[in-house]
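Practice problem: predict the structure.
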Amino acid sequence: MLDRTLPAIQALKHVVVLMMENRSFDHMLGSLRQQNPMIDGLQGTETNPDTNGASVTVAPNAQYQGQLDPDPDHHFPAVDQQVFGGVTTAQNPNRTANMQGFVQSYYTQQQNIVHSHLIMNYFTPDNLPVLTGLAANFAVFNRWFSSIPGPTLCNRAFAHYGTSFGQVSMDVFYWNKQIKSIYERVVAANHTARLYYYDEASSSLEVVNLLQNQPSLFGTFQDFLDACNNNQLPEYCFIEPNYTDHDAPDGSGELIACDQHPDHDVRAGEQFIASVYNAIRQNANLWPNTALLLVYDEHGGTFDHVPPPSCTPDGFVAQPGATGTPDPFHFDRLGVRVPAVLISPWVQKGSVVNEVFEHASIPGTITEFFIGDYPDRTPREIAANTFLNNLSLPAMRADDDCPVFS
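Answer:
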Protein backbone atom coordinates (compact mmCIF):
# COMPACT_ATOMS: atom_id res chain seq x y z
CA MET A 1 0.00 0.00 0.00
CA LEU A 2 1.36 3.39 -0.99
CA ASP A 3 2.27 5.58 1.98
CA ARG A 4 0.94 8.98 0.94
CA THR A 5 2.21 10.57 4.15
CA LEU A 6 5.80 10.35 2.87
CA PRO A 7 7.11 13.79 1.86
CA ALA A 8 8.57 12.33 -1.32
CA ILE A 9 5.22 10.88 -2.37
CA GLN A 10 3.54 14.20 -1.75
CA ALA A 11 6.14 15.91 -3.92
CA LEU A 12 6.16 13.27 -6.66
CA LYS A 13 4.83 14.32 -10.07
CA HIS A 14 6.66 12.10 -12.57
CA VAL A 15 7.65 8.44 -12.74
CA VAL A 16 10.08 7.37 -15.47
CA VAL A 17 10.98 3.75 -16.30
CA LEU A 18 14.05 2.96 -18.40
CA MET A 19 14.13 -0.70 -19.44
CA MET A 20 17.38 -2.09 -20.83
CA GLU A 21 18.00 -5.51 -22.37
CA ASN A 22 19.07 -9.02 -21.50
CA ARG A 23 21.52 -8.98 -18.61
CA SER A 24 21.24 -10.72 -15.24
CA PHE A 25 21.80 -9.19 -11.82
CA ASP A 26 24.96 -11.15 -11.08
CA HIS A 27 26.39 -10.44 -14.54
CA MET A 28 26.06 -6.66 -14.08
CA LEU A 29 25.84 -5.97 -10.32
CA GLY A 30 27.02 -9.16 -8.63
CA SER A 31 30.46 -7.71 -7.89
CA LEU A 32 28.93 -5.00 -5.67
CA ARG A 33 28.65 -7.54 -2.86
CA GLN A 34 32.34 -6.89 -2.20
CA GLN A 35 31.55 -3.23 -1.50
CA ASN A 36 28.26 -3.75 0.33
CA PRO A 37 27.57 -7.21 1.83
CA MET A 38 23.84 -6.41 2.00
CA ILE A 39 23.76 -6.75 -1.79
CA ASP A 40 23.01 -10.36 -2.70
CA GLY A 41 25.68 -10.63 -5.33
CA LEU A 42 28.56 -12.98 -5.97
CA GLN A 43 30.95 -14.45 -3.44
CA GLY A 44 33.23 -15.55 -6.26
CA THR A 45 32.81 -19.26 -5.54
CA GLU A 46 29.59 -19.89 -7.49
CA THR A 47 29.89 -22.63 -10.12
CA ASN A 48 28.07 -24.41 -12.92
CA PRO A 49 29.00 -27.76 -14.48
CA ASP A 50 30.00 -27.87 -18.13
CA THR A 51 29.05 -30.67 -20.51
CA ASN A 52 32.04 -32.72 -19.30
CA GLY A 53 30.97 -32.36 -15.68
CA ALA A 54 33.81 -29.96 -14.76
CA SER A 55 32.92 -27.08 -12.44
CA VAL A 56 33.14 -23.62 -14.00
CA THR A 57 33.58 -20.81 -11.47
CA VAL A 58 32.31 -17.28 -11.97
CA ALA A 59 35.04 -14.89 -13.10
CA PRO A 60 35.35 -11.06 -13.30
CA ASN A 61 36.23 -11.22 -16.98
CA ALA A 62 33.14 -9.96 -18.78
CA GLN A 63 33.93 -7.91 -21.89
CA TYR A 64 31.95 -5.02 -23.34
CA GLN A 65 31.55 -6.70 -26.72
CA GLY A 66 32.77 -9.71 -28.67
CA GLN A 67 32.45 -12.26 -25.88
CA LEU A 68 28.79 -13.36 -25.87
CA ASP A 69 28.56 -14.11 -29.56
CA PRO A 70 26.42 -15.90 -30.50
CA ASP A 71 23.68 -14.46 -28.34
CA PRO A 72 22.98 -16.76 -25.36
CA ASP A 73 19.68 -18.59 -25.70
CA HIS A 74 16.95 -17.07 -23.52
CA HIS A 75 13.83 -18.64 -24.98
CA PHE A 76 11.59 -20.59 -22.65
CA PRO A 77 13.14 -24.09 -23.06
CA ALA A 78 16.67 -22.74 -22.61
CA VAL A 79 15.76 -20.78 -19.50
CA ASP A 80 14.08 -23.88 -18.11
CA GLN A 81 17.39 -25.70 -18.54
CA GLN A 82 19.34 -22.83 -16.97
CA VAL A 83 17.09 -22.59 -13.93
CA PHE A 84 16.54 -26.30 -13.28
CA GLY A 85 19.94 -27.59 -14.37
CA GLY A 86 18.47 -29.62 -17.20
CA VAL A 87 16.25 -31.70 -14.89
CA THR A 88 12.83 -32.17 -16.44
CA THR A 89 9.53 -32.83 -14.72
CA ALA A 90 9.56 -36.30 -16.28
CA GLN A 91 12.80 -36.99 -14.43
CA ASN A 92 11.61 -35.39 -11.22
CA PRO A 93 8.08 -33.97 -10.89
CA ASN A 94 9.21 -32.22 -7.69
CA ARG A 95 12.29 -30.63 -9.23
CA THR A 96 13.61 -27.44 -7.68
CA ALA A 97 15.43 -24.50 -9.22
CA ASN A 98 19.20 -24.82 -8.74
CA MET A 99 20.58 -22.35 -11.34
CA GLN A 100 23.00 -25.02 -12.59
CA GLY A 101 22.25 -25.13 -16.30
CA PHE A 102 23.75 -21.92 -17.70
CA VAL A 103 27.04 -23.33 -19.02
CA GLN A 104 25.42 -26.41 -20.54
CA SER A 105 22.76 -24.23 -22.14
CA TYR A 106 25.35 -21.91 -23.68
CA TYR A 107 27.28 -24.92 -25.00
CA THR A 108 24.39 -25.63 -27.37
CA GLN A 109 25.12 -22.38 -29.24
CA GLN A 110 28.56 -23.36 -30.55
CA GLN A 111 29.22 -26.89 -29.27
CA ASN A 112 32.42 -25.40 -27.82
CA ILE A 113 33.22 -26.21 -24.21
CA VAL A 114 35.74 -23.38 -23.73
CA HIS A 115 33.32 -20.84 -25.20
CA SER A 116 30.47 -22.12 -23.01
CA HIS A 117 32.42 -21.08 -19.90
CA LEU A 118 32.16 -17.41 -20.89
CA ILE A 119 28.56 -17.29 -19.67
CA MET A 120 29.92 -17.29 -16.09
CA ASN A 121 31.82 -14.03 -16.54
CA TYR A 122 30.69 -10.86 -14.77
CA PHE A 123 31.56 -7.16 -14.77
CA THR A 124 33.45 -5.36 -12.01
CA PRO A 125 32.33 -1.91 -10.79
CA ASP A 126 35.14 -0.09 -12.57
CA ASN A 127 33.87 -1.53 -15.86
CA LEU A 128 30.33 -0.17 -15.30
CA PRO A 129 30.78 3.17 -13.52
CA VAL A 130 27.33 4.50 -14.43
CA LEU A 131 25.22 1.46 -13.54
CA THR A 132 27.17 0.57 -10.41
CA GLY A 133 27.46 4.25 -9.44
CA LEU A 134 23.68 4.61 -9.54
CA ALA A 135 23.24 1.36 -7.61
CA ALA A 136 25.66 2.53 -4.92
CA ASN A 137 24.17 6.01 -4.68
CA PHE A 138 20.47 5.12 -4.66
CA ALA A 139 18.43 1.93 -4.06
CA VAL A 140 19.33 -1.43 -5.58
CA PHE A 141 16.77 -4.24 -5.59
CA ASN A 142 18.07 -7.62 -4.43
CA ARG A 143 14.96 -9.42 -5.65
CA TRP A 144 13.70 -7.89 -8.88
CA PHE A 145 12.96 -10.78 -11.25
CA SER A 146 11.89 -10.90 -14.85
CA SER A 147 8.22 -11.78 -15.03
CA ILE A 148 8.56 -15.10 -16.84
CA PRO A 149 11.47 -17.45 -17.65
CA GLY A 150 11.51 -16.42 -21.28
CA PRO A 151 12.52 -13.76 -23.81
CA THR A 152 12.08 -10.03 -24.31
CA LEU A 153 8.65 -9.41 -25.80
CA CYS A 154 6.56 -11.34 -23.30
CA ASN A 155 8.54 -9.92 -20.39
CA ARG A 156 8.09 -6.36 -21.59
CA ALA A 157 4.37 -7.04 -21.93
CA PHE A 158 4.21 -7.43 -18.15
CA ALA A 159 5.63 -3.92 -17.80
CA HIS A 160 2.89 -2.55 -20.06
CA TYR A 161 -0.11 -4.70 -19.14
CA GLY A 162 0.72 -6.70 -16.00
CA THR A 163 0.44 -9.86 -18.13
CA SER A 164 1.62 -11.33 -21.41
CA PHE A 165 -1.82 -12.77 -22.17
CA GLY A 166 -0.49 -16.33 -22.12
CA GLN A 167 2.52 -15.67 -24.38
CA VAL A 168 6.00 -17.00 -23.52
CA SER A 169 7.70 -16.35 -26.86
CA MET A 170 8.83 -13.58 -29.19
CA ASP A 171 5.70 -13.84 -31.33
CA VAL A 172 4.25 -10.47 -32.30
CA PHE A 173 0.49 -10.46 -31.86
CA TYR A 174 -2.44 -8.22 -31.10
CA TRP A 175 -3.59 -8.81 -27.58
CA ASN A 176 -7.27 -9.13 -26.90
CA LYS A 177 -7.33 -5.87 -24.98
CA GLN A 178 -9.63 -6.94 -22.17
CA ILE A 179 -6.85 -5.55 -20.01
CA LYS A 180 -5.85 -1.97 -20.80
CA SER A 181 -2.22 -0.94 -21.00
CA ILE A 182 -0.91 1.26 -18.23
CA TYR A 183 -0.73 4.14 -20.72
CA GLU A 184 -4.40 3.84 -21.60
CA ARG A 185 -5.34 3.65 -17.93
CA VAL A 186 -3.34 6.75 -17.01
CA VAL A 187 -4.70 8.82 -19.89
CA ALA A 188 -8.28 7.74 -19.18
CA ALA A 189 -7.79 9.01 -15.62
CA ASN A 190 -6.84 12.46 -16.99
CA HIS A 191 -3.12 12.07 -16.51
CA THR A 192 -0.37 12.05 -19.12
CA ALA A 193 1.69 9.07 -20.32
CA ARG A 194 4.08 8.25 -23.13
CA LEU A 195 6.32 5.47 -24.38
CA TYR A 196 9.53 6.89 -25.85
CA TYR A 197 11.22 4.62 -28.41
CA TYR A 198 14.64 5.59 -29.72
CA ASP A 199 13.88 6.70 -33.30
CA GLU A 200 12.04 5.64 -36.43
CA ALA A 201 14.78 3.15 -37.39
CA SER A 202 14.71 1.55 -33.94
CA SER A 203 11.07 1.78 -33.00
CA SER A 204 9.37 0.20 -30.04
CA LEU A 205 9.14 -3.56 -29.84
CA GLU A 206 5.62 -2.94 -28.61
CA VAL A 207 4.29 -0.77 -31.45
CA VAL A 208 2.30 -3.61 -32.99
CA ASN A 209 0.65 -4.42 -29.71
CA LEU A 210 0.22 -0.95 -28.23
CA LEU A 211 -0.21 1.30 -31.26
CA GLN A 212 -3.87 0.86 -32.11
CA ASN A 213 -5.14 4.28 -33.12
CA GLN A 214 -3.14 5.81 -30.29
CA PRO A 215 -0.10 7.56 -31.82
CA SER A 216 -0.26 10.19 -29.09
CA LEU A 217 1.10 7.61 -26.65
CA PHE A 218 4.43 7.41 -28.50
CA GLY A 219 7.44 9.63 -28.97
CA THR A 220 11.14 9.35 -29.80
CA PHE A 221 14.05 9.62 -27.41
CA GLN A 222 14.70 13.13 -28.69
CA ASP A 223 11.12 13.95 -27.73
CA PHE A 224 11.94 12.77 -24.21
CA LEU A 225 15.01 15.00 -24.03
CA ASP A 226 13.00 17.94 -25.36
CA ALA A 227 10.25 17.29 -22.81
CA CYS A 228 12.82 17.37 -20.02
CA ASN A 229 14.39 20.58 -21.33
CA ASN A 230 10.99 22.25 -21.76
CA ASN A 231 9.50 21.06 -18.46
CA GLN A 232 6.84 19.11 -20.34
CA LEU A 233 7.63 15.60 -19.14
CA PRO A 234 4.53 13.37 -18.94
CA GLU A 235 3.49 12.16 -15.53
CA TYR A 236 4.40 8.59 -16.52
CA CYS A 237 6.80 7.60 -19.25
CA PHE A 238 8.64 4.49 -20.35
CA ILE A 239 11.93 4.74 -22.27
CA GLU A 240 13.40 2.22 -24.69
CA PRO A 241 17.03 2.21 -25.88
CA ASN A 242 18.34 1.93 -29.43
CA TYR A 243 18.09 -1.72 -30.45
CA THR A 244 20.10 -1.57 -33.68
CA ASP A 245 23.23 -0.10 -35.23
CA HIS A 246 21.97 2.24 -37.95
CA ASP A 247 22.70 5.51 -39.68
CA ALA A 248 21.43 8.69 -38.08
CA PRO A 249 18.48 10.18 -39.99
CA ASP A 250 20.32 13.50 -40.36
CA GLY A 251 23.34 11.83 -41.95
CA SER A 252 25.62 12.69 -39.03
CA GLY A 253 26.99 9.16 -38.72
CA GLU A 254 26.20 5.76 -37.28
CA LEU A 255 24.10 5.37 -34.15
CA ILE A 256 25.32 2.45 -32.06
CA ALA A 257 22.86 0.09 -30.38
CA CYS A 258 22.72 1.04 -26.70
CA ASP A 259 20.33 -1.59 -25.34
CA GLN A 260 23.19 -3.77 -23.93
CA HIS A 261 21.64 -6.86 -25.54
CA PRO A 262 24.47 -9.35 -26.17
CA ASP A 263 26.57 -8.78 -28.17
CA HIS A 264 26.02 -5.01 -28.41
CA ASP A 265 28.59 -2.74 -26.79
CA VAL A 266 27.80 -2.39 -23.10
CA ARG A 267 29.58 0.98 -22.98
CA ALA A 268 26.99 2.49 -25.33
CA GLY A 269 24.33 1.42 -22.85
CA GLU A 270 26.27 3.05 -20.02
CA GLN A 271 26.25 6.31 -21.95
CA PHE A 272 22.54 6.00 -22.68
CA ILE A 273 21.67 5.36 -19.04
CA ALA A 274 23.71 8.42 -18.08
CA SER A 275 21.92 10.56 -20.68
CA VAL A 276 18.50 9.65 -19.27
CA TYR A 277 19.62 10.23 -15.70
CA ASN A 278 21.33 13.53 -16.51
CA ALA A 279 18.29 14.84 -18.40
CA ILE A 280 16.31 14.56 -15.17
CA ARG A 281 19.10 15.23 -12.67
CA GLN A 282 20.24 18.49 -14.26
CA ASN A 283 16.76 20.03 -14.40
CA ALA A 284 15.97 21.69 -11.09
CA ASN A 285 12.27 21.56 -11.92
CA LEU A 286 12.29 17.79 -12.46
CA TRP A 287 14.84 16.31 -10.08
CA PRO A 288 12.92 17.01 -6.83
CA ASN A 289 9.65 15.49 -8.05
CA THR A 290 10.69 12.63 -10.37
CA ALA A 291 11.41 8.97 -9.64
CA LEU A 292 13.47 7.02 -12.19
CA LEU A 293 13.40 3.22 -12.23
CA LEU A 294 16.23 1.61 -14.18
CA VAL A 295 15.52 -2.07 -14.89
CA TYR A 296 16.31 -4.82 -17.42
CA ASP A 297 13.65 -6.86 -19.22
CA GLU A 298 15.23 -10.30 -18.73
CA HIS A 299 18.57 -11.97 -18.10
CA GLY A 300 19.51 -12.83 -21.68
CA GLY A 301 20.91 -16.24 -20.71
CA THR A 302 23.67 -14.86 -18.45
CA PHE A 303 24.31 -16.47 -15.06
CA ASP A 304 22.54 -15.57 -11.83
CA HIS A 305 22.72 -17.56 -8.61
CA VAL A 306 19.33 -16.73 -7.02
CA PRO A 307 16.50 -19.20 -7.82
CA PRO A 308 13.33 -17.44 -9.03
CA PRO A 309 10.41 -17.71 -6.59
CA SER A 310 6.81 -18.67 -7.18
CA CYS A 311 4.23 -15.94 -7.76
CA THR A 312 0.51 -15.33 -8.09
CA PRO A 313 -0.70 -16.69 -11.46
CA ASP A 314 -2.10 -14.16 -13.92
CA GLY A 315 -4.98 -16.35 -15.08
CA PHE A 316 -3.42 -17.55 -18.34
CA VAL A 317 -1.81 -20.87 -19.31
CA ALA A 318 0.77 -21.56 -22.04
CA GLN A 319 0.41 -25.08 -23.37
CA PRO A 320 3.37 -27.41 -24.15
CA GLY A 321 3.24 -26.48 -27.83
CA ALA A 322 3.88 -22.86 -26.86
CA THR A 323 6.47 -23.47 -24.13
CA GLY A 324 8.62 -25.79 -26.24
CA THR A 325 8.81 -28.15 -23.26
CA PRO A 326 6.69 -31.19 -22.30
CA ASP A 327 4.89 -29.09 -19.71
CA PRO A 328 2.37 -26.26 -19.71
CA PHE A 329 3.29 -23.04 -17.93
CA HIS A 330 0.80 -21.55 -15.50
CA PHE A 331 2.64 -18.24 -14.99
CA ASP A 332 3.09 -19.20 -11.36
CA ARG A 333 6.84 -18.66 -11.08
CA LEU A 334 9.09 -15.77 -12.05
CA GLY A 335 11.99 -15.58 -14.45
CA VAL A 336 15.67 -14.95 -13.70
CA ARG A 337 16.73 -12.00 -11.55
CA VAL A 338 17.68 -8.74 -13.30
CA PRO A 339 19.34 -5.46 -12.27
CA ALA A 340 16.96 -2.79 -10.95
CA VAL A 341 17.76 0.56 -9.33
CA LEU A 342 15.38 3.24 -8.01
CA ILE A 343 16.79 6.74 -8.42
CA SER A 344 15.60 9.90 -6.66
CA PRO A 345 16.97 12.49 -4.21
CA TRP A 346 14.41 11.06 -1.78
CA VAL A 347 16.13 7.64 -1.74
CA GLN A 348 18.56 6.85 1.06
CA LYS A 349 22.06 6.49 -0.36
CA GLY A 350 23.20 2.89 -0.46
CA SER A 351 19.73 1.43 0.06
CA VAL A 352 19.20 -2.28 -0.55
CA VAL A 353 15.62 -3.48 -1.06
CA ASN A 354 14.89 -7.13 -0.24
CA GLU A 355 11.19 -7.53 -1.10
CA VAL A 356 10.34 -9.45 -4.28
CA PHE A 357 9.49 -7.35 -7.35
CA GLU A 358 8.84 -8.16 -11.00
CA HIS A 359 7.71 -6.27 -14.09
CA ALA A 360 4.03 -6.42 -13.10
CA SER A 361 5.15 -4.15 -10.25
CA ILE A 362 5.49 -1.37 -12.83
CA PRO A 363 1.85 -1.02 -13.94
CA GLY A 364 0.85 -1.94 -10.39
CA THR A 365 2.82 0.96 -8.94
CA ILE A 366 1.77 3.47 -11.58
CA THR A 367 -1.89 2.48 -11.27
CA GLU A 368 -1.83 2.81 -7.49
CA PHE A 369 -0.09 6.19 -7.54
CA PHE A 370 -1.97 7.94 -10.35
CA ILE A 371 -5.34 6.17 -10.35
CA GLY A 372 -5.91 4.34 -7.08
CA ASP A 373 -8.39 1.48 -6.99
CA TYR A 374 -8.54 -0.14 -10.42
CA PRO A 375 -10.06 -3.64 -10.50
CA ASP A 376 -9.71 -4.46 -14.23
CA ARG A 377 -6.25 -6.05 -14.07
CA THR A 378 -4.78 -9.46 -13.42
CA PRO A 379 -4.45 -11.04 -9.96
CA ARG A 380 -0.70 -11.11 -10.71
CA GLU A 381 -0.46 -7.33 -11.03
CA ILE A 382 -2.68 -6.72 -8.01
CA ALA A 383 -0.45 -8.97 -5.90
CA ALA A 384 2.84 -7.47 -7.14
CA ASN A 385 4.76 -5.29 -4.69
CA THR A 386 4.90 -1.58 -5.50
CA PHE A 387 8.16 0.33 -5.25
CA LEU A 388 7.47 3.99 -4.49
CA ASN A 389 7.55 3.60 -0.71
CA ASN A 390 11.32 3.31 -1.11
CA LEU A 391 11.31 7.10 -1.59
CA SER A 392 11.53 7.19 2.18
CA LEU A 393 13.74 10.11 3.25
CA PRO A 394 12.06 12.85 5.32
CA ALA A 395 13.91 15.49 3.28
CA MET A 396 15.68 15.62 -0.08
CA ARG A 397 19.36 14.84 -0.22
CA ALA A 398 21.69 17.77 -0.82
CA ASP A 399 22.42 18.58 -4.45
CA ASP A 400 26.09 17.66 -4.13
CA ASP A 401 25.15 14.29 -2.60
CA CYS A 402 23.80 12.97 -5.91
CA PRO A 403 26.17 12.19 -8.81
CA VAL A 404 26.20 13.69 -12.28
CA PHE A 405 27.85 11.74 -15.08
CA SER A 406 29.75 13.37 -17.90
